[in-house]
Amino acid sequence: MQPARIYGSTFYNCDCISGASEYIPDGSVDLIITDPPYGIQGDRLHRHYNRNEGFVAGGYQEVPQQEYAEFSRRWIRQAERMLRPGGSIYVVSGYTNLADVLVALRETSLIEINHIIWKYSFGVFTRRKYISSHYHILFYGKPGGRRTFNPESRYGLAERDRSGRSCNNADREDVWVINREYKPGRLKNKNELPLQLLVKMIQYSSNENDHIVDLFLGGFSTAKAAIGLGRRVTGFEVSKPVFAAKVEELRKIRPGSLVPELRSPVLNNPACAGKRWTEADLRALGEEFRRLSAGARPKKEIIAGLQQKFGRGRFGIEKALKKVL
Question: Which of 226, 261, 296 is the last residue of a domain?
Answer without folding.
Answer: 261
